[in-house]
Amino acid sequence: MSVVEPELSKPAGEEVExxxxxxxxxxxxxxxxxxxxxxxxxxxxxxxxKYPLFVTWNTRASRPGKPHKLRGCIGTFEPQPLHDGxxxxxxxxxxxxxRFRRIxxxxxxxxxxxVSLLTDFEDAVSYLDWTVGVHGIQITFPHPSLIPVAPxxxxxxSPLSSSSSSSVPTRSVLKHxxxxxxxxxxxxxxxxDKIETIDSAIRKxxxxxxxxxxxxxxxxxxxxQSRSCAVSWEDYVRWRTDNGGSL
Length: 247
Known about the structure:
This protein has 247 residues and is an alpha+beta fold. The protein has helices spanning 22-37, 82-95, 171-174, 184-190, 194-204, 213-218, 233-242; strands spanning 2-4, 50-59, 69-81, 111-123, 136-141, 178-182, 220-232. A 7-stranded mixed β-sheet has the order 1-3-2-4-7-5-6. It is elongated and about 70 Å long.
């Protein structure tokens, strides 16, 4: 899962009760389908409210009971008008998630589309101030060599000392801010507790050195919730046909 990360904010426009709808997923699916087939898209009919959002593509498992496989997931914390925002990120997550090759037309019938609208952004008091299965988290932190290390009663070397890295960080590296996010469902699906989730987010952000308690406590954590919906290819085909679209 990738993310575009401008300033975080609460959802704009309509109130939170305007939850994620199947029509949001159908619009995302329609955008991808038409991009791959040159068919005429169906204009969206749902309200054009603004939300931070993610669009996720999954490949359904070939056997019943098996988990789906992530095929692409990119979003933004900047509130987007849903008509254009969903269309834009449907294509970005399908074609520009660097973890995967571009989605191709032959894959459509095995895809599932999920849309998450993000709400209720809050600053966490600590890295443990959130609930698994309820909150997503967004973490940011400076290069760990810049984080003060708490005094230790022993003479053991600092976990963030030069022994944890083979070279001294350059000035450009030191200026880099690490950041990562996990949507609310991720920790629960992976079976992670809070510390495992936080440590996985630190790794996802790009830090490969030792993860110490000093590093965890230095994290800036924003927690948020999401309203999500998912549809299958068959659901989309039925919707497009019912709305007069050709296949």
